## 1
Amino acid sequence: MKARRLNRRTFLATGARIGMTGLALSGSSLLLQGFGFGDLGSTIEQASKLTNSATKSFTAVSKALEDITPEQEYYIGRTIGAIVLNKYKPYEQEAGNRYLNLLGQTLARFSDLPELFDSYHFQILDSAEINAFATPSGLVFVTRGMLRCCAHEGALAAVLAHEIGHIQLKHGLHSIEKDRITKATSILAIEGTKNFAKSDIANLTSTFEDSINDITSTMINNGYSRSFENEADVAAVTLLGRVGYNPAGLIDMLKIMSKQLKPGGLDFAKTHPSPESRIENLEKLVAGTEAQTPTASQQRRFEAALKGV
Amino acid sequence: MGEQFSVQVRDGQVRTKPSFLGTVIATVHYGDRLAVVQTKESWVEVALPGSKQGWMHLSALTEKEIILNPNAQQVSQAASSDELALAGKGFNKQVEEQFRKQNSQANFAGVDKMETFRVSQEEMAQFLKAGDLKPQGGEA
């Protein structure tokens, strides 16, 4: 029993460690190894020193996050999705949304978090702003403005893989103030029957609203930290390679984005590190991968699905 | 008795091999308790009723026992135990409903519509093939 338990813990801890290393350095050494980098001994040593010093507080946060079951994460994600779809109008074009889901749900299957309480779902937003959002538990939104930064399927795959990265690394949940999670879990620990008493529901709903505000204000208004964005880029590079897309697709997209972003804009210009600095980090990550041109069949379906967007 | 895992997703798919390209042979549900036959990286082979076996991804499973309709005793047990989880605890459907009453502008209908966007196993395989994509481990 113990050995098996360790097995699952190890699985979870690996995810946490990758996240942690990413926080300490701009790219995880564990993942860098996969890209044919040479001797990383000193980098790893440095990372482990930094990691150890931060492990204590990180473990506390992880423990609190572990108390959020996939079922609870699902209700948090749905509510944030409902707020995004109030702020932005969904773009009702069946072919485009269908293609986005084919691509995104296929990618998600090969991510480190393939199974969610419900499933990953993708939606185009009717906005010229350059933006994309991912809620906990798998709702991903991409604006028409962002789609226009993608010249080929691999570039769009890169945008979706970056968002899937935020979900698998639980970046949204990290924005919730820790004491709210403790508060919610203490209510449920005492009163966790199928139906709550009226006063408990009022308390829980108020904690729920606060948690939702924590996430939306980070996700929509202020943006994640630079290290979370780097981690999501690293996760995207890994995922793209796994599925068979050229990880450099992310760089292709960022190059177009850097020309189209307006300084001082409220979209990616405000919430993300500059495309130039992301490109600089990514070029180190994808060095040595062979350049691939998108296949004709990919390009045909990409253009057919997104024409008019 | 050997080790058991619980299904922590709404519907979990059991496959013929430890890969998402494996054929789905059964669907299991939230809270179902399954005996573990063996594990292989992030995949778990589980025993199904009728002496069948199949593979599930570890992210669909938890070592905790999930109690769907807990009695008072289980509620107090869960408070002090890492081994029990209560379904519907904390942020749940009831909390969402309360939130909706207080935030009528939130577009839950849009989210419900999004949740209908589903891609089947066959459609994924076809999408990969038509796009000349060969995922790692796809041949497993």
## 2
Amino acid sequence: MDEKIVSMKNIVKEFSGVRVLDNVDFNIYKGKIMALVGENGAGKSTLMKILTGVYLKTSGDIYLEGKEVNFTTTKESQDMGVAIIHQELNLVQDLSISENIFLGREPVGKSGKIKWKQLYDESKQWLDKLGLNESPKELVKNLSVGKQQLIEIAKALSLNAKVIIMDEPTGALTISETEKLFEVVNELRSQGHSIVYISHRLNEIFQICDYVTVLRDGTLVGEKTIDELDEDKIIEMMVGRKLSEQYPRVNTILGHTVLEVKNLSNKFVKDISFELKEGEILGVAGLVGAGRTEMARSIYGVYPLDKGEILMKGKPVVIKSPKDAIKEGIAYVSEDRKSNGIVLGLNIVENVTLASLDQYVGKIGKINKSEEEKSTDSYVKSMSIKAAGTKQLLKFLSGGNQQKVALAKNLNTNPKILILDEPTRGVDVGAKKEIYELINKYKESGMSILMISSEIPEILGISDRVMVMHEGMVTGTLDIKNADQEKIMSLAVGKEVS
Amino acid sequence: MKKLSLKGRDWKSILSQNKPVIVLLILIVAMSIMNDRFLTWSNALTVLRQTSINAVIATGLTFAILIGGIDLSVGSVLAICGAVSAKMVASGMNIFLVILLTLMLGLGMGMVNGLFISKGRLQPFIATLGTMTLLRGFTLVYTQGKPISIFGSETSAVYSKIGTGYFLGIPIPVYIMLFVFVIAYYILRHMKIGRYTYALGSNEEATMYSGIKTDNVKIFVYGISGFLSALAGIIVTSRLGSAQPTAGSGYELDAIAAVVIGGTSMAGGIGTIFGTAIGALIIGILNNALNLLQVSSYYQGVAKGIVILIAVLLDRKQRTSR
């Protein structure tokens, strides 16, 4: 058995009477990487916030190198060698690398002047250690997200961190950046650092982790060594049911071609062509930055086209704005719900009818509020949107319910084509299944669906065909019968598939 | 179900959600105690008449602030529209034509602001700062720096009734103010464009993605602000009997104060016409009170500033706690 550096025992955390962590035990082993997994809301972040002094535990004990500790601020945990790297990086974009590494503890002389040479030299050492050859004077905003992540690590190391907690570190990284990060993480492990790795990407966990702890609904499901597990087993532990039930597939007979996109090109995408049939789900896979969202938004009229044609039922259409797209029967459910999917300051009714208000107004522009209410009620029922009432503001709803409202808003425009951009992002596993079932229902009613997703299992689970993009181009389209994770990945990184 | 829950709300919770109303009531009670000339019918009418000009401007500004913008040009639009209308009246033009042309001029100027802000992608503060300065200068050129009298034609007598006349014992500007409130309330609560105003102020991008031409909404909103500034210009000019080249200077500040005291968020998306009406009344009563109490004009600004800050702070506290 490996030596424990951190041991949390019987941790309980309550927020105003609601128990979010219930007697959780969690260990971090010296010189090992511990994966911490669970659905959204399982309690991972809360547990880590307790360890780093952001939240105070309600009860339970924490031991660091055998001694009981009770951090009340992040500063205290940092001083004792526990550092956390958040998903949203905490770097000041307009300062240099070294200013960021030593922010708040710059080496200064008697007069208070910063000793720049010492600052740069020490920063350089940390950068060298991580294999980065950037100048310490480089501004952080000029670095890629992957490199910024490494700067966060450099900062943690310069604080003499023994334990480094990484929250979804690869969320925004490219493949090569992820590989680089893994090299660094492996190197840190061999130097004796202990790491907590929080990730939804199970394949990464199998690449680098030694142990896995699974949480579900605020309770500990189990701690296992990596050899005892495979992906299916982890998922089963996470959701408490078998994976096969997660993706309800329905097979429909495909109808006529509804949408044809021909040689679509602009500054984001090159030469995109595809067809979509009635009742078909076309999954769009690819890595972050492959241009999938940009393609969808170009079809939806947000970005102008340089070249190419869009045909609806064989007739060319001109789409220059979302207004045109909606008129042609195209709806787009955004990946970025809060910034362009829903209006947080409006209530459920007002959001549901926002894109289709013309249906409810009379000659002088007066809104028929009882009709609005009626439509909204039917969505609330059919989608089981959970809210205190239809007048509740969107900002008070959970992510899953917000997503359902976004979906309802688009459905209320009576679309023939539904473009879903990451429809289950930030939605927990239970609500995910409900969303898949809704998508299937629309498919059965003859709607054509273009579903962009970064989760390959989701694409494989419910699509009829899979289109893969890489650097703004389509690198291949696979029938679902021939598609698998590997083929999709190789197309996504731009490799030819036979 | 919905109506029941509304009835179930007691007056305490209604008041706690309408802090400006409390400030207004306190102000009225305090003034009634301090000065026995305050709570009289004639003084009440004076306050309402004086409030009407600021209230009309503030109603237009409420739209601009609701979409997260601002309109600094209201005072200058008031001045130029007042001057143009005075010249038209003096020339004997038909009264209805005068009013129509003046209002259209204000509407047009507001829409130009809207064009700069939407199509020209200028910051609302900068765009309207520019037109404020430009139109003030243009007013001085147009009037040669001298007041333009409205008298000298058959139209004059009718025109001057707008600002000075009474109907059933109540000044005509008060009717105009109430009419503007009702129409603005109706637009914001029950019309499509009102819904879009709130949506745009709360999340511009999502509004655009919902197939709404946000540029058109902005042009409409600044158009309303210009239109109501022109209406205020007519009231002011009619009341004074002449168009002053410096009319309306600084009016944007009292109007912004009224909107903000009324609980409208400068960030957009939150606010009501009811709030603005209360805000305008608070400012109006305060001005009246300071005069009745014979506070030196040096101290008037100090007192007004303090009340504005208290009213806004009360509102802010309530919101963060929710």
